[in-house]
Design brief:
The chain is built from seven helices and seven strands. It is α/β, with parallel strands linked by helices. The longest helix has 19 residues, at about 5-25. It is globular.
Length: about 200
């Protein structure tokens, strides 16, 4: 399903008002995002992370979501309509990768969590090499992003806690410069992304 930009931005603005009302969300650095294809790479601490990042970015953003969420009658049309891409985390298939590269080839913006899954203890985990492979083979810059407060607002295994403030910091773009066929270089770049996320400061 092709994403309708008007519908997407209606959902994005609704998300923004939700986060402003219940979490006093603030962002820094999103006005400096470069044009063209882009990968946003946030830390992952909460189910709130994807909409918290996306509501601050004034462009259509695409996300990966568990394939089990794409169930009729709602998930099968709602998630694709707002740019979500189904992926089986246990065995990602070629169809997911094909859709990811299509987004980037069409100069789209993709949100990828380098850690893969949400943190269990609040600490940053190690980045997975997959994000580096995608960046390398699509020649797309990666912007490190760090969320503060999202875990306190909805921790893994816990419920929603309103009135916990959330801040989102966008860093400077990074580019893969290694061998696009070398897995060790992929891991080095994933580590570089995580180091850049760790260096972003709260405000």
């Amino acid at each position: 399903m092709k994403v309708c930009a008007f519908w997407f931005h209606c959902c994005r603005l609704t998300s923004y008002f939700f986060f402003r009302t219940f979490h006093r969300i603030r962002g820094r650095g999103m006005e400096e995002l470069p044009p063209g294809p882009l990968i946003l790479a946030p830390n992952h601490a909460s189910y709130l992370d994807p909409p918290a990042v996306g509501c601050l970015v004034p462009r259509v953003t695409h996300y990966l979501a568990k394939h089990t969420l794409f169930q009729p009658p709602i998930g099968s049309w709602l998630l694709p309509s707002v740019g979500s891409i189904p992926v089986n985390q246990d065995s990602p298939g070629p169809s997911s990768l094909k859709r990811i590269f299509e987004v980037l080839q069409n100069r789209g913006t993709l949100v990828l969590f380098p850690e893969g899954s949400r943190t269990t203890d609040g600490n940053l985990g190690r980045g997975e090499p997959g994000i580096a492979m995608i960046a390398a083979r699509s020649q797309t810059p990666v912007v490190p992003v760090r969320l503060f407060g999202a875990r306190e607002a909805m921790p893994r295994g816990g419920g929603w806690k309103p009135l916990r403030p959330i801040r989102v910091v966008f860093g400077k773009p990074l580019r893969f410069s290694g061998n696009p066929r070398n897995r060790e270089d992929f891991q080095k770049f994933a580590d570089e992304i995580m180091a850049a996320i760790a260096a972003l400061k709260d405000f």
